[in-house]
């Protein structure tokens, strides 16, 4: 069946409080809906679903959203896992819309967003639920971090991770070692009542959903936490999305700029715009020297933003209307460094950026007392 995105109905403050109360009552033994978005990953699904089947804390339901797979994914699941509910799409809607479709049909108190390439240990779900019970209501998102295949060590550092003022991931400096700005690399949990129509923006298609999700929940005054003992491993499957490399870079660049345009308050957005424009120019120049693909991806990202002003205004208005906190508490988790410290030029650029943040009043994490 071909499915389309529909706008979610506005929820009154009273109804939201009632749903939060109901969620807190159910948190003693919450039902968990697992949502998996798949596209041509039948080999990975074999391992992923088997690991879900062996959970000591069984999921309430497993929902597979299949984005028009050309392999045997759907028939494999129907034959071997008849208890899995399948939403079969006639075209590839992308990961963001796929997760939204799954969340809309979920009935659990908690929702877990799972990549089909991941494999979890039998105590995975129980550990995350336990950490959620202890951390609610501070943490509205919980991530179980991804480990390298075989469990040797985690991909990347333990963190914590955050974003810089341009929306790119950098290492952060959190007082709470279990706190993150965004749910990096792993399975993501959240209470369904906070995003009943889906937590993501379907127009993002792919890359970087995690940044969008973490920032969106920060504006709702819900932080992102990490469940450190819940183990998630990278299994076998397709190593890259079924799209050209330049298009992946296009989505990465465009969606990162979209995050800035949607989530900053107006005055702070004006302060960041010069750096955003400089970022675009530098990427165009660098693309000319590294190949046509990066140049074309950056140019397309600029063109998309330039040709969709009404859509951007609508998305921004919706994001700002839902915010519960001003930028102040969010900025203190963002870094003012715009590039990685390395050569003299990089250090100089970061020094200038941090000085600019202090001069214009962007109270980033480096300037916290």
User: What is the CATH level 1 assignment of the largest domain?
Assistant: Alpha Beta
**Shape category:** globular
Known CATH architecture of the largest domain: Alpha-Beta Complex
Helix coverage percent:
40-55%
Alpha plus pi helix count: 12
Strand content: 15-25%
Counted up, domains total: 2
| CATH third-level topology of the largest domain | Spore Coat Polysaccharide Biosynthesis Protein SpsA, Chain A
- Alpha-beta classification: alpha/beta
How many β strands by DSSP? 12
CATH superfamily membership of the largest domain, which one? Spore Coat Polysaccharide Biosynthesis Protein SpsA, Chain A
Gap from first CA to last CA = 55 Å
| Poorly predicted runs of 5 or more residues | 1-9, 150-158
Question: Could you explain the architecture of this structure?
Answer:
This protein has helices at 13-26, 42-53, 73-80, 94-105, 124-135, 209-219, 245-263, 266-290, 292-306, 309-322, 328-331, 344-360, and strands at residues 32-38, 61-67, 85-89, 110-114, 118-120, 139-147, 161-163, 169-171, 179-180, 186-191, 223-226, 232-234. With 369 residues, it is of the alpha/beta class. It has 2 domains: 13-234, Spore Coat Polysaccharide Biosynthesis Protein SpsA, Chain A (Alpha-Beta Complex); 245-367, no CATH class. The strands form 2 sheets. Strands 1, 2, 3, 4, 5, 6, 9, 10, 11 and 12 form a 10-stranded mixed β-sheet that branches. Strand 7 and strand 8 (169-171) form a beta hairpin. The longest helix is centred in the C-terminal third of the chain and has 25 residues, at 266-290. The protein is globular, with a radius of gyration of 20 Å.
């Amino acid at each position: 069946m071909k499915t389309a995105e529909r706008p979610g109905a506005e929820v009154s403050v009273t109804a939201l409080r009632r749903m939060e109360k109901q969620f807190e009552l159910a948190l003693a033994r919450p039902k968990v809906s697992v949502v998996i978005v798949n596209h041509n990953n039948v080999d990975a699904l074999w391992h992923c679903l088997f690991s879900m089947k062996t959970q000591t804390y069984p999921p309430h339901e497993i929902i597979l959203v299949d984005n028009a797979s050309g392999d045997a994914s759907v028939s494999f699941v129907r034959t071997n896992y008849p208890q899995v509910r399948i939403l079969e799409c006639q075209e590839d809607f992308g990961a963001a819309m796929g997760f939204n479709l799954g969340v809309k049909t979920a009935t659990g108190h908690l929702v877990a967003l799972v990549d089909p390439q991941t494999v979890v240990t039998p105590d995975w779900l129980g550990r995350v639920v336990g950490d959620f019970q202890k951390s609610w209501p501070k943490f509205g998102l919980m991530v179980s971090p991804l480990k390298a295949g075989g469990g040797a060590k985690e991909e990347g550092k333990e963190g914590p991770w955050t974003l810089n003022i341009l929306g790119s991931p950098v290492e952060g400096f959190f007082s709470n070692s279990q706190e993150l700005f965004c749910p990096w690399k792993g399975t993501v949990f959240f209470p369904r009542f906070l995003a009943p129509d889906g937590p993501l923006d379907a127009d993002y298609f792919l890359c970087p959903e995690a940044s969008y999700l973490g920032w969106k929940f920060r504006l709702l005054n819900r932080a992102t936490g990490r469940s450190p003992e819940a183990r998630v491993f990278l299994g076998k499957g397709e190593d890259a999305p079924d799209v050209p490399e330049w298009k992946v870079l296009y989505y990465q660049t465009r969606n990162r700029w979209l995050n800035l345009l949607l989530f900053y308050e107006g005055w702070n957005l004006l302060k960041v715009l010069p750096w955003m424009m400089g970022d675009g120019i530098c990427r165009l120049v660098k693309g000319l020297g590294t190949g046509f693909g990066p140049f074309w991806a950056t140019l397309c990202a600029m063109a998309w933003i330039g040709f969709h002003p009404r859509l951007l205004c609508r998305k921004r208005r919706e994001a700002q209307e839902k915010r519960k906190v001003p930028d102040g508490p969010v900025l203190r988790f963002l870094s003012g460094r715009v590039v990685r410290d390395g050569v003299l030029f990089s250090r100089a650029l970061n020094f200038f950026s941090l000085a600019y943040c202090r001069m214009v009043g962007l109270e980033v994490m480096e300037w916290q007392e």
